[in-house]
Amino acid sequence: MIEERFDAIVIGAGMAGNAAAHTMASRGLKVLQLERGEYPGSKNVQGAILYADMVEKIIPNFREEAPLERHLVEQRFWMMGDRSHTGLQYRNDDFNEDKPNRYTIIRSQFDRWFSKEVQSQGALVICETTVMELVSDAYGKVIGVRTDRKGGTLFADVVVLCEGVNGLLGARAGLRATPKPEHVALAVKEMHFLPRETIEARFNLHGDEGVVIEAAGVISKGMTGMGFVYTNKESVSVGMGCLVSDFATNNDTPYGLLEMFKNHPSIKPLLEGSEVKEYAAHLIPEGGYKTIPELFGDGWVVCGDAAQLNNAIHREGSNLALTSGRLAGEAIFQIKSRKDAMSKQNLALYKKLLDDSFVMKDLKKYKDMPALLHANSQNYFLAYPQLVSKAMENFLRVDGTPKIDKEKATIASFVKERKWTGLFGDAWKLARAWR
Amino acid sequence: MSLAARVEEKLYQNRYIVDAGKPHIAIRPHDKPSENLLAMTRICPAGCYSETSSGQVEITPDGCLECGTCRVLCEASGDITWNYPRGGFGVLFKFG
Ligand SMILES: Cc1cc2nc3c(=O)[nH]c(=O)nc-3n(C[C@H](O)[C@H](O)[C@H](O)COP(=O)(O)OP(=O)(O)OC[C@H]3O[C@@H](n4cnc5c(N)ncnc54)[C@H](O)[C@@H]3O)c2cc1C
Ligand code: SF4
Prior knowledge:
By secondary structure, chain A is α/β, with parallel strands linked by helices.
């Protein structure tokens, strides 16, 4: 295929891979990037909220060029009852700023654009090529990759693994384990197309303003999981995700759950009359800090979802992928500039840069959350939402019952369901994990 | 089953280039499926896994969304082998 030797080979043209390849190529390194899809983004699925700051650090003027959908002015959190929702809504006109902080995007379009930027920096990007395994020397140092193309073994000083949550290469080479069912969520997603005026009227938006809804509660049937509705220019992304381990023991199908979510009386009117043009599924790493594998070794580093760098509590992943890819690129550039070897010892610089960034600090902060939510999923995702819904109904329905009696009934239902000790225990555990 | 019918309708909206005759996922021959393998007949978001009349689990990965759920659940036990399709083949998301 290609005879030359590269400074770095990047596996994958998702968020992490593009960030790493751009960072290295723009600093003059000789970069080869390999992607198995027909085009960058053809295998990738996201909600998708894009965080501007992390892109800006790589491509400062991206807002002028990148395919962006809507900038977010409003966020809704909905706790779903069977036929109700209790919502928290935050809207701020200050988010209509010159340089908005968050946007919705369509991944396959964004990734394609990002990859063109990478190529314009001089990186060689080859698609439709699946990397089959890492190639190591007699001392175990990674020195290249073998692809599914004829004669497709390629060599470089360092391999940057940005292969996503379902990365086979790192696992096959024994650099990390395959994620466990309790550490990954399976998300299914549909793209619903509607005229832009309809979206703007239904969601109370003007121009390119956008709103996102995150929904939890009875919709996941007691499993650790959430639903979402994100507005794009002419489409609405709707999805649902739950832990794979929960799916394995529950009786529902992922698409059945998505259908139920779409048919919930609070969601249905938002989608009425839409044309569905795609159905996708993807895993999300949700194990957090405690499941992060070894991040570097002789001749290799790993970034993004492949390294479980994903903040499930805040539904952030792309920004951690972008940042880890960028920092890996910067570390490699520094080592290269000093003419040092891509040894494990030297590549520890990547981990140091990551430790100093928000990526590791945020993941560390929430290190106990994933296990807690999982262990108590019946309470957090089923019992409490039903109780809240009942409490709201008691509060709002005017039917001649004295308020004092209603309050007593509400409190009694909370206590009956969980006992005081259980309620305090759950609240205490949640607060501790959150700190 | 109505929900199974519906997942097929969903898959029709997607674009695929199927690598004919080269399935990327294979099930180890078995008399009685493991619990996780049986669960895949329900969990696979593309409905690729099904139960035969004699109680084994079989796979038709043409509509596979390459999510990796079956890999996470069934690879470690040796119930299945899992690979990516050859470069360029498989599902091609227009939006993602
Ligand atoms: C439903 C859903 C909603 C989400 N919503 C959000 C959100 O709103 N905001 C947010 O920030 N994050 C969100 N995320 C998370 C986010 O999508 C990921 O964190 C992010 O895409 C990770 O980037 P990555 O580069 O590590 O991996 P990916 O983007 O998955 O890229 C991996 C790439 O590697 C390629 N590849 C893999 N193996 C090989 C191989 N052997 N050879 C060649 N190429 C290979 C793949 O084809 C792919 O292009 C969401 C995820 C899902 C599934
Ligand atoms: S990878 Fe996902 S879609 Fe494909 S067969 Fe396995 S579970 Fe089904």
